[in-house]
Write a structure and sequence with these properties.
Elements (H helix, E strand, L loop, with lengths): L4 E6 L2 E6 L10 H16 L5 E6 L10 H8 L9 H11 L4 E5 L2 E3 L1 H4 L6 E5 L3 E3 L13 H9 L1 H10 L3 E2 H6 L5 E3 L4 H14 L2 H11 L2 H19 L2 H11 L11
The protein binds coenzyme A.
């Protein structure tokens, strides 16, 4: 378990809270393990009808913890064996509705997680980005399939390659979210939607979700992405990007071939 992931079950809604506000809810390996546990529980436990992801502090999530990237980059082994991939597999396999409440920054997996949520509420001024190329990495969480599917190739490519953020209003206009509301209404709107979903016929809603997506295909893409991601994570260009973040400077890729 991780002290930075809290869960509680009420009214059929399993709420999963990112609780590492001082680090903008950057996600560590221990947090991924706790997220995987919660998502697996959501599927297995008949008392859970809906899973709701929300966060403490001013950011939904700053994505993968970059200190963890540095440590993992120096650790041999298959990326698919790591906590993050147990979480991703659980997301791919989840056949119950998932809802997200997004305020502030949603970076990396903070955005790609939303592609696995069925209803997404964003703050109008939220900032969403997938700066994998800025970190010399590669897309994950089946986002190489799902983001172009939602946005079209050019918009998705620009988000991946330039790493710039879009705001919540744009996320709504581009089909990444169901609602964009003022920041102070995000949680209440998401809780309300989760309660509505929890009251629907459970088998009907599961079958509806299952028919709308192909869990095996998603997992196959995630595994393919893991190869590119793992190779990049251990590359000199990624190490330069991680060190640049730690040293609060811009990366310099000019001397890397
Ligand atoms: N991994 C580890 N630590 C992180 C982090 C991450 N992904 N994101 C933020 N933090 C830490 C910062 O290092 C800082 O720690 P410190 O107080 O000990 O110096 C603290 O969280 C606050 O972050 P800060 O950068 O000062 O906040 P900000 O409001 O100026 O910027 C972000 C917020 C999210 C825009 C910025 O932190 C950022 O770009 N983070 C990296 C996002 C990223 O690239 N994630 C990986 C995606 S694959």
């Amino acid at each position: 378990m991780s002290e930075h992931i809290r869960t509680h079950l009420e009214g059929g809604v399993l709420t999963v809270v990112f609780d590492r506000a001082d680090k903008k809810n950057a996600i560590t390996q221990a947090m991924y393990a706790a997220l995987a546990d919660a998502t697996e529980q959501a599927k297995a436990d008949d008392a859970v009808r809906v899973i709701l992801f929300r966060s403490e502090g001013d950011s939904f999530s700053a994505g993968n913890d970059i200190a963890d990237f540095i440590a993992l980059g120096q650790t041999p082994g298959d990326l698919v064996e790591m906590g993050v991939f147990r979480f991703l597999k659980a997301l791919a396999d989840l056949d119950k509705p998932a809802v997200a409440a997004v305020r502030g920054r949603a970076v990396g997996i903070g955005l790609t997680l939303l592609l696995h949520c069925d209803m997404v509420v964003v703050a109008e001024d939220a900032l969403l980005s997938v700066p994998f190329v800025n970190l010399a990495l590669a897309p994950e969480a089946a986002s190489s399939l799902l983001l172009p599917r939602v946005l079209g190739h050019q918009r998705a490519f620009e988000l991946f390659a330039l790493g710039e953020a879009i705001d919540g209003r744009t996320a709504l206009a581009w089909g990444l979210a169901n609602r964009a509301v003022p920041a102070d209404q995000v949680e209440a709107t998401a809780v309300d939607l989760a309660a509505k979903l929890a009251a629907r016929a459970p088998n009907s809603i599961r079958k509806t979700k299952a028919l709308m997506r192909d869990a095996e295909a998603l997992w196959a893409v995630m595994q393919l992405e893991a190869q590119a991601f793992g190779a990049q994570m251990r590359s000199p260009e990624a190490m330069e990007a991680f060190m640049a973040f730690s040293q609060k400077r811009a990366p310099d890729f000019s001397k890397l071939g």
